């Protein structure tokens, strides 16, 4: 297909166009038996016109094996979500939170974009399960009340490691802040877990953090 | 991005003819699958770590006991390295469909995997995510559907901090999305649209490409026009998509390909294309078309057809919207550089991907049908002759070329005077010799317009044995009325 040489320079030139030639139609143009009419054509989704291009697209997707390169010294980080962190930090470490939540709905929905707020974490959990189809044991919700008495004075929570628990037993373990040696206090009469009321000195999260979150979950004795 | 793809070509042992035959068979099978709406395209991200290559590429099938053991070790091992190794072994096993089946049949296995995915150990999370990714890529639906419990977490992690991890989650989600309506029914209320809308603001190219892939899968769902596309259009996703399609130094081809396809799935669903036009889709796509033609000229065109195809489709479909007239689409509808760009692409397709010629000609039809301006550009840029050179390619292409020529001719004498004298008449006499009824029919329509608006052409037609060419078809039911009318005009007109 030979293109005029001026075409390439035209492409690189300024926008614009020549004055259109005058249009002058004769009614005999569309008279039977002739039936041509200039018309815009639209193809819907499943039209077979798209077959070839769709097959090429499919081949493109299937033939790709891309490398997921491993960084040699990958910093150890968990992968929390920014939204969850905001919610979490607010709930767990603001001593005002407890007071405020008695007066207004403080538990915000965990789904990005949903602006619902709830009075209790249970109410929020119900909302998540019913409306957003979250699993009933979604692990980033607040732990349920009455999960059992804490082991008093336990310092199992060394800085980096806190492993070996039967995690699936936890009824929704929240993400905790590291370097907090205090053990969770037993569930108060109001029925909510809290840490000690002390605001922690360091909060580890975000990029470049060298510590992950550690768990305060106790070792599960039975299998 | 383009060179990365090309680098993945596997070494070839058999001959070129055999390859071509296999390719044809494969494409025929894919076309059939598409016709039956069974074309499922999944993407696989796989780590080419040295130890895997050392095994000679053999995937080990794990038995139930082994899967259990690896899971137990991963979950309860005392040393982190040990736990990680267990997961790696599991992941490698999961490359095989049998291991996948074993895994999903094992009670509690997904629960454990999700537990590891949501643990606070980054490397375990990553390996667990990779296991999930392998499962998502399975051919059997039942395996992918077993991953349902993980979706809320995958979505949660889209607002995390590690771009590698996000990329993996996105590809996994994309694979799961395409697999079953059950997954999609769950993902929508779980907030996938706002999650993607937030994630699309990531500066990471790999994340964006993965997001585009996942979104393209979501948009292809059969229930998309009613259940998915409206909320996509109601989000900030369209504006961001169009931004990622803006030509310029920041345009990433891999990313652009994904979002161009997303845009195509939206536009061809005809949900609310007027909205896209108000967001400037025509302008962006028009500029992108110019950019693509420029890339062809600079021969930076490896894989370019992958992006050109959806761009052509979007432009063609958007041009059919009534909104085009009212919403200031006027500039795009007159810029003759668009015509120049399209022909540069047509030439490129002729050489590299002839199956895309109809798509390019579709745009040409929609540009010229109602536009005296573009018809004039076709003439003033001397593009009639190049257009005629496409006639021998195929019947489909012939019909479309002739249709475009009719678009020009029907605008009246001023246009037909530019069509003859010239190469048009000899070409028409050629196409009249085709056996395809539709090609001949369209040729007759064009002849009629030419005779009507440029009667001087009739003599030339007669002198070049035009009548004989016509008479070949006088018995053909679909053609005879028009043949007779033209014969009459030629002899008496």
TrEMBL record, chain B:
**PROSITE patterns given in the database record:** IBB
Matching entries from SMART domains are given as: ARM
Gene3D superfamilies tied to this protein:
Leucine-rich Repeat Variant
The GO biological-process annotations, alphabetized, read as: protein import into nucleus
Q: Does the keyword Transport apply?
A: yes
Task: Identify the domain of life.
Answer: Eukaryota
InterPro entries (alphabetical)? ARM-like (IPR011989), ARM-type_fold (IPR016024), Armadillo (IPR000225), Importin-a_IBB (IPR002652)
Name this polypeptide is given: Transmembrane and coiled-coil domains 6
Could you tell me which species this protein originates from? Propithecus coquereli
Q: What is the lineage of its organism?
A: Eukaryota, Metazoa, Chordata, Craniata, Vertebrata
């Amino acid at each position: 297909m030979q293109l005029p040489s001026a075409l390439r320079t035209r492409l690189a030139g300024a926008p614009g166009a020549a004055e259109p030639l005058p249009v002058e139609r004769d009614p005999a143009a569309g008279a039977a038996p002739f039936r041509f009419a200039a018309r815009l054509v639209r193809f819907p989704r499943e039209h077979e016109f798209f077959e070839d291009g769709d097959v090429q697209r499919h081949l493109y997707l299937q033939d790709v094996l891309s490398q997921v390169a491993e960084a040699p010294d990958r910093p150890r980080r968990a992968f929390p979500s920014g939204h969850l962190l905001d919610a979490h930090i607010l709930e767990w470490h603001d001593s005002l939170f407890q007071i405020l939540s008695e007066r207004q709905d403080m538990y915000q929905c965990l789904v990005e974009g949903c602006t619902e707020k709830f009075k209790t974490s249970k109410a929020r959990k119900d909302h998540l399960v019913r409306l957003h189809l979250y699993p009933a044991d979604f692990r980033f919700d607040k732990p349920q009340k009455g999960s059992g008495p804490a082991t008093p004075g336990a310092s199992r929570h060394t800085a980096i490691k806190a492993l070996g628990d039967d995690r699936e037993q936890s009824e929704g373990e929240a993400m905790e802040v590291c370097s907090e040696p205090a053990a969770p206090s037993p569930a108060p009469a109001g029925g909510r877990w809290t840490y000690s009321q002390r605001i922690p000195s360091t909060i580890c999260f975000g990029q470049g953090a060298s510590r992950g979150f550690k768990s305060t979950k106790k070792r599960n004795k039975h299998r | 991005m383009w060179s990365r793809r090309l680098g993945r070509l596997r070494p070839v042992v058999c001959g070129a003819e055999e390859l071509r035959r296999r390719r044809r068979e494969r494409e025929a099978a894919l076309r059939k699958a598409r016709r039956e709406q069974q074309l499922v395209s999944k993407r696989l991200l796989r780590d080419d770590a040295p130890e895997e290559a050392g095994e000679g590429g053999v995937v080990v099938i794990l038995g139930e006991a082994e899967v259990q053991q690896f899971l137990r070790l991963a979950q309860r091992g005392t040393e982190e390295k040990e736990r990680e190794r267990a997961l790696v072994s599991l992941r490698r096993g999961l490359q095989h469909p049998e291991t996948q089946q074993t895994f999903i049949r094992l009670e509690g296995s997904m629960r454990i995997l999700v537990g590891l995915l949501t643990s606070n150990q980054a490397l375990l999370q990553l390996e667990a995510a990779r296991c999930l990714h392998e499962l998502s890529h399975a051919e059997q639906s039942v395996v992918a559907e077993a991953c349902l419990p993980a979706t809320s977490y995958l979505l949660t992690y889209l607002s995390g901090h590690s771009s590698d991890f996000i990329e993996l989650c996105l590809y996994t989600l994309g694979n799961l999305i395409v697999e079953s309506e059950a997954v999609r029914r769950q993902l929508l209320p779980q907030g996938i649209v706002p999650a993607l809308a937030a994630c699309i603001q990531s500066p990471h190219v790999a994340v964006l490409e993965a997001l585009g892939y996942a979104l393209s899968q979501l948009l292809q769902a059969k229930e998309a026009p009613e259940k998915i596309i409206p909320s996509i259009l109601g989000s900030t996703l369209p504006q961001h998509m169009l931004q990622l399609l803006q030509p310029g130094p920041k345009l990433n081809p891999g990313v652009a390909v994904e979002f161009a396809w997303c845009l195509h799935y939206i536009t061809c669903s005809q949900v609310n294309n007027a909205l896209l036009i108000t967001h400037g889709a025509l302008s962006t796509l028009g500029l992108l078309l110019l950019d693509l033609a420029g890339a062809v000229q600079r021969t930076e065109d490896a894989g370019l057809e992958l992006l050109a195809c959806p761009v052509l489709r979007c432009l063609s479909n958007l041009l059919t919207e009534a909104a085009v007239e009212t919403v200031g689409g006027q500039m795009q509808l007159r810029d003759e550089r668009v015509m120049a760009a399209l022909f540069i692409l047509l030439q490129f397709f002729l050489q590299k991907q002839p199956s895309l010629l109809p798509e390019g000609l579709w745009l040409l039809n929609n540009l010229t049908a109602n536009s005296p301006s573009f018809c004039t550009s076709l003439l003033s840029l001397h593009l009639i002759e190049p257009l005629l050179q496409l006639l021998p390619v195929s019947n489909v292409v012939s019909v479309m070329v002739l249709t475009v020529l009719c678009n020009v001719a029907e605008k009246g004498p001023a246009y037909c005077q530019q069509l003859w004298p010239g190469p048009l008449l000899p070409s028409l006499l050629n196409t009249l010799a085709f056996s395809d009824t539709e090609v001949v029919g369209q040729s007759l329509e064009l002849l009629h317009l030419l005779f009507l608006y440029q009667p001087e052409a009739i003599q030339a037609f007669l002198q070049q044995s035009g009548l004989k060419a016509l008479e070949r078809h006088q018995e053909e039911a679909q053609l005879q009325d028009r043949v007779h009318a033209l014969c009459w005009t030629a002899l008496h007109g």
